[in-house]
Amino acid sequence: MSGIPINIDPVIVHLGGFALHWYSLTFAGGIALAFWLILREARRLGLDRAKVEGVAFWAVVGGLIGARLFHVLDKLDYYLASPQQIIMVNQGGLAIFGGLLAGGGVAFTLALREGIPVPRLADAAAVGLIPGQMLGRVGCIINGDAFGGPTNLPWGFIYTNPGAMLPDALKGVPTHPYPAYEVLWDLALLGLMLYLRRRSLPAGMLFVTYLAGYALGRFTLTFVRNEEIVAWGLQQAQVIALFILVAAAGVGIYLVSQANRTRQEA
After folding, report:
1. What distances in angstroms separate CA 7 from CA 33, 107, 142, one per listed residue?
2. Looking at CB atoms within 10 Å, which of 42, 57, 103, 159 has the fewest?
3. What are phi and psi of 248, to 5 degrees?
4. What single-letter DSSP state applies at residue 198?
5. Is 230 exposed, middle or buried (0-12, 13-18, 19+ CB in 10 A)?
6. pLDDT at residue 131 in the model
7. Which residue from 205, 234, 209 is spatially nearest to 221, judged by alpha carbons?
8. Parallel, antiparallel, or unpaired: how do β-strands 4-6 and 157-159 relate?
9. Is 266 helix (H, G, I), strand (E, B) or coil?
10. 3-state secondary structure of 260
11. Mind listing the pLDDT tens digit for each residue in 15-33?
12. Measured between alpha carbons, how far is 262 from 94 in angstroms, rounded to an integer?
């Protein structure tokens, strides 16, 4: 059986009744990295650092709540049977789309209140979010909670540790390394955005590129996963990704048309 064995305990260490998970460590590291990069990019764009810090902090809080709530609603039957697990975010179970929606909503509302240009703040956020997500997905590789379907490819992940969070039926079976696929996709998207950030783009266009690029990746890569089909023969993440792609296309067309109109008037 060919593949890459993953025999890492998701728990780093037990300290009394507390367990430190690799997922918690990488996810916290991803948030810290994203926070630092967003502040750095905001300074480059001439935004008020103190105001951006406040907005970013509460966006992180809102994003965490939204990411967990989205995951709990997705797995509602499990959490109704085990409600004590709802708060166990250190074990995994944070939906990126839920985090983007809730965190983005908080950031948008606070930015308007603080007088921060929303499109420029969004561009700063885009540069920080992708590296943070990539680091968080490393925790998913160890956790086994974002697994793909069975595969015969030589780079399939074979989870052998009893603490891995994928179903028991898939332990010891080569599965598509979905988190690794997403990390590679995000790395390519990051390269594109680092190129575009130095170009003369309408404010907000970099964030639109991030949304569209990430959604396209999720839609395509999710085909290797075996989640529940919800509509049109597609899994939940794919349906959400389609809506995001349509919305990103609409916003992108609007931003370009507004920029062209401004140039013509000038």
Report:
1. 27, 39, 8
2. 57
3. -65, -40
4. T
5. middle
6. 92
7. 234
8. parallel
9. coil
10. helix
11. 777 777 888 888 889 889 9
12. 41
| CA–CA dist 122, 105 (Å, integer) | 11
CA distance linking residue 29 with residue 48, whole number of Å: 24
Higher-pLDDT residue of 128 and 68 is: 128
What residue segments make up the domains of the chain, in order of their start?
A: 4-197
**Coil, helix or strand for 128?**
helix
Note the pLDDT tens digit of each residue in 214-228: 999 999 999 998 887
- Between CA 165 and CA 250 the distance in angstroms is 38
Which token pair is 73? 């609603």
In this structure, the chain runs to a length of 266
Continuous H helices in the chain: 22-44, 49-74, 76-81, 96-114, 118-143, 178-196, 205-221, 236-265
Q: How far apart are CA 102 and CA 190, in angstroms?
A: 22
Token digits of residue 131: 């590296």
